[in-house]
Design brief:
154 residues; 6-stranded antiparallel sheet
Length: 154
C-alpha cells in the first residue's frame, strides 16, 4: 500500500465549511481508500415523530461514508464517483447517544464500486446496515446539468 492510499483524509474533510455532513454534525474519525469511520452525536433534529432516529439519517450517513471512501480511491486514478444506489436496512431503533458508522469496499472496479457500511449505537450494536453502488467517472463527465430547454411549438 502506498503512502497516498494509506493517508488519512479525515482532518481535511472535517474542515469543509458546509455540506450535509457539517449541517448534521457528522464528524469523520478516519478516512482512507480502504475504510471510513464517522460519528454523529444525536440531537432532536435527527429524530422522527416517534422520537427515534429518522431512517433517512441512517441512509445519508451510509451514503456519506461510502462515497468518501470511493472518492478517495477514485482520486488516486484521477477519477470521480457518484452514487447510483443505496440499499439501507434499519435493524434497531435508537433515541439518543452517538452513532458510529464504518464503511469498507466490497469491490472497486474501473466503472463501479460497491461499499458496505454499518451504523452502530453506543453499545456497539448494529442499528443500520447498507450497501452503496457508485459510478466511477472521468473528471470531465457532465454531472447535474440542467435539462435542455423545451421550445413550444406553435
Amino acid at each position: 500500500m502506498s503512502d497516498q492510499e494509506a493517508q488519512d483524509a479525515s482532518e481535511l474533510l472535517n474542515q469543509s465549511p458546509d455540506g450535509w455532513a457539517k449541517a448534521n454534525g457528522l464528524r469523520i474519525v478516519s478516512a482512507t481508500r480502504d475504510e471510513v469511520v464517522a460519528e454523529l452525536t444525536l440531537a432532536p433534529k435527527h429524530l422522527q415523530a416517534y422520537g427515534i432516529v429518522h431512517g433517512g439519517m441512517h441512509c445519508a450517513i451510509i451514503e456519506t461514508v461510502a462515497s468518501i471512501g470511493a472518492a478517495l480511491d477514485a482520486i488516486a486514478y484521477g477519477k470521480n464517483v457518484v452514487g447510483l444506489e443505496n440499499h439501507t436496512s434499519f435493524l434497531r431503533a435508537v433515541r439518543e447517544g452517538t452513532l458510529r458508522a464504518v464503511a469498507r469496499p466490497l469491490t472497486r472496479g474501473r466503472r463501479t464500486q460497491v461499499w458496505e457500511a454499518n451504523v452502530h449505537d453506543d453499545a456497539g450494536r448494529v442499528v443500520a446496515s447498507g450497501r452503496v453502488r457508485l459510478l466511477v467517472l472521468d473528471p470531465e463527465a457532465p454531472l447535474g446539468e440542467k435539462a435542455p430547454a423545451v421550445k413550444a411549438e406553435g
